[in-house]
Model the fold of this input.
Amino acid sequence: MPHVEIKCFEGRTDKQKTECAERITQVIAETLGCKTSSVSVAIKDIPEKDWKTEVWDKSIVPDEKYLYKRPGYSCDGEM
Done:
């Protein structure tokens, strides 16, 4: 506990993803009071053309009540 899943457009390097995962792990451990060894982070590349169907419609809209940080965009044609 906890597990974090990040979905983003393609184009980040493995080095960027590793650094992101390490930094997120540190913040989570400090903020939630757990060990870094308890944190797992997955980073998934999503093609931009699939964002609405694969992320917006499947993860953001259905889980809106759980979002503590909402996106500053909509998928009504504006990204």
In short: The mean pLDDT is 95. DSSP finds two helices and two strands in the chain. The two ends are 32 Å apart (CA to CA). The longest strand covers residues 3-9.
